[in-house]
Design brief:
Helices cover about 65% and strands about 0% of the residues. The protein is extended. It starts with 16 loop residues before the first helix and ends with a helix. It has a domain of about 170 residues. The protein is built from 11 helices and no strands. Helix 7 runs antiparallel to helix 9 and helix 7 packs across helix 10. With about 325 residues, the protein is mostly helical.
């Protein structure tokens, strides 16, 4: 039932039922069913779709452009390093060749005794074979030559000391006769003994890396240094011309002989200095060569047992012991 508008024009035409039905259908309902009318239906249909979040754009990581050009790619060995390596290989080959030549010389050379170099008409003949360039390895030859020069200097000082003793005897100086006699004994005795007891062992030690010969050299050479220091002092009655007796001769007015004796004292001092330096040098070589006291003991025992004289003596002792035991058995 529709409500009438009291203010409406009574002469206005009334809307038809068809128009009323179409107006009601705009709101989603009909005039026959007012309960299903929904005034917000068209609004819901016309409402825009909810806001859909658009995906965030992918941002690439920031890159830092290099401030300088990258190093060139590795293309091979450094030329300087290659040249150095080639040089080292060339030196190694040359060293191996020289060592092979030295070994060939050692195998083919006639090791006849040539020292001391005595003339053929002399009744005495050389006792040792001495050749540093053949028997001593190349890396040890310099040290061996220095030791040989020191030995020669020692022999020269002994000879000059004998001359000073002779001059002291001729001028009637203090202890002239005793100094001359003892200096002559030193010259005759110590010249061969120094070669045999300290130079020859170090020669063998450098040639064969022998621990026993190293030990023998260290003991004998140390005693040689101690006695050389005493000789340098020039104590009266010791047979040497040193600082003390040279000063006495200078006080007594024998200036010529005193000058000779001062020179002799200076030579003894230089000889002591050289000996100390060489002792330290050879000791360093000994420590770096791997030699030891245990090796020296083993070499000594092996050399003693391999000595024919020792073997003959041991055989004679065993034979004598057996014969003594048999004789005692026959007695019973």
């Amino acid at each position: 039932m529709s409500q009438d508008n009291p203010f409406a024009d009574p002469f206005a035409p009334q809307p038809s039922s068809q128009q009323q039905y179409s107006s009601n259908s705009q709101y989603g309902t009909t005039s026959s069913n007012n309960d299903d009318f929904n005034p917000f239906a068209d609004q819901q249909k016309a409402a825009p779709a909810p806001f859909a979040a658009t995906p965030a754009p992918v941002i690439a990581p920031a890159t830092i452009e290099p401030t300088r050009a990258p190093p060139p790619a590795y293309s091979g060995v450094d030329p300087s390093m290659q040249q150095r390596q080639d040089e080292l290989e060339r030196k190694a080959q040359e060293l191996a060749r020289k060592e092979e030549e030295l070994n060939n010389i050692q195998r083919t050379v006639d090791k006849a005794k040539n020292f001391p170099p005595l003339p053929k008409f002399c009744c005495a003949q050389p006792c040792f074979y001495h050749d540093i360039s053949v028997e001593i390895p190349m890396e040890m030859q310099r040290n061996c030559r220095m030791l040989f020069y020191v030995w020669q200097l020692y022999v020269f000082v002994l000879m000059y000391n004998f001359i000073c003793g002779l001059a002291l005897l001729c001028t009637g100086g203090n202890d002239g006769a005793q100094t001359f006699g003892v200096s002559l004994v030193y010259l005759v005795l110590f010249t061969p003994c120094s070669f045999v007891f300290w130079y020859r062992p170090v020669y063998k030690a450098l040639a064969t890396n022998s621990s026993f010969n190293f030990m023998l050299f260290f003991f004998m050479f140390f005693m040689q240094i101690v006695f050389s220091i005493i000789y340098t002092m020039g104590i009266g009655g010791f047979g040497t011309c040193g600082w003390i007796n040279a000063a006495k001769e200078l006080d007594s007015g024998n200036s010529g002989v005193a000058a000779m004796m001062f020179i002799c004292a200076a030579l003894w001092s230089v000889l002591v200095l050289f000996k100390i330096l060489l002792y330290k040098r050879i000791h360093g070589l000994y420590r770096s060569s791997g030699a030891s006291i245990q090796k020296a003991q083993g070499e000594f025992a092996r050399d003693v047992m391999s000595n024919k004289n020792v073997q003959n003596a041991a055989a004679e002792a065993v034979r004598g012991g057996i014969q003594g035991g048999n004789s005692s058995t026959n007695t019973y």
